[in-house]
Design goal:
The chain is of the alpha/beta class and about 240 residues long. It has one domain: Spore Coat Polysaccharide Biosynthesis Protein SpsA, Chain A, CATH 3.90.550.10. Helix content is about 40%, strand content about 15%. It has seven helices and nine strands; from the N terminus they run βαβαβαβαββαβααββ. It has helices at about 25-45, 70-80, 95-110, 130-135, 170-180, 200-215, 220-230; strands at about 1-10, 50-55, 85-90, 115-120, 145, 155-160, 185-190, 230-235, 240. A seven-stranded mixed β-sheet has the order 3-2-1-4-6-5-7, with helices on both faces. Strands 8-9 form a two-stranded antiparallel sheet. A hairpin with a 5-residue loop joins strand 5 and strand 6 (about 155-160). Helix 1 runs antiparallel to helix 7.
Length: about 240
């Protein structure tokens, strides 16, 4: 079984999706979208064969007055089928590379799990099938990466630790691959799936979700519902607009 760590920021205004807040979305809308994606991602992990670990930020990395664990727990406990089975642990590290490295290394070396993965909560289109496919690939490859636009990754799975110092330096998919090869680990890849962190990401995701919903294919329910409620669409000129 793979332990999948979702590295979550508290879904409160001013703490998430800063590139979308005040741009295509109001700050409250950006926060709601982050909450929806976080919930959809955690539900996908819960529905898979993986163990769900939610890593929340430490107190010194969140806005004043915010309870980082409570802010993450609240929407998840209302949405997950078995919220009591979820593990919550604080993130350790001042950078994303350090936080992922500390979590993955602790799971593999201290807890003795077979495989561990780090997932971005902005990977709103992550599915149970992708998570289970990654677990299968980790049986024969030391590292499995889920690439996204601009060299980012939405999923990084490990059967063995790598050198995580600055491992999420852009382009992350290339940097992590180089670290794996340096440690003589095989690398495999999942299909590319968009993250939702920028206006460009929204221009990719909005028509994809609208098309999948129209075709009656599987969509992340909370994320799709919010995009519909916001009236987001992409014009023929590739402009992101609200109805």
């Amino acid at each position: 079984m793979t332990t999948v760590a979702v590295l979550a920021a508290p879904p409160v205004e001013g703490a998430v999706l800063s590139e979308l807040a005040g741009g295509p979305l109001e700050e409250s809308e950006a926060t709601a979208l982050y909450t929806a994606m976080l919930t959809d991602v955690c539900r996908a992990v819960e529905a898979s064969g993986a163990e769900l670990l939610v890593n929340y930020r430490p107190d010194d990395q969140v806005p004043d007055g915010v309870d980082p664990e409570g802010a993450v727990r609240e929407p998840l406990e209302a949405a997950l089928d078995a919220p009591g089975d979820v593990r919550y642990e604080v993130q350790v590290g001042s950078s994303l590379s350090a936080r992922v490295g500390n979590t993955v290394t602790h799971l593999l070396e201290r807890e003795g799990v077979n495989t561990a993965a780090a997932v971005e909560p902005t990977a709103g289109l992550l599915t149970r099938q992708l998570i289970d496919s990654a677990a299968m690939k980790l049986r024969s490859s030391g590292v499995v990466l889920g690439p996204s636009a601009d060299g980012r990754v939405y999923y990084a799975g490990f059967a063995d630790p790598v050198d995580f110092e600055d491992a999420y330096t852009s382009p992350t998919v290339e940097t992590l691959t180089e670290r794996a090869i340096d440690d003589d680990l095989g690398v495999d890849f999942l299909p590319s799936t968009p993250l939702v962190e920028t206006s460009a990401d929204l221009r990719t995701v909005v028509p994809l979700l609208r098309a999948r919903q129209r075709a009656e294919r599987v969509v992340p329910p909370r994320t799709t519902t919010l995009i519909n409620e916001f009236g987001l669409r992409v014009t023929a000129e590739n402009d992101l607009v609200k109805k």
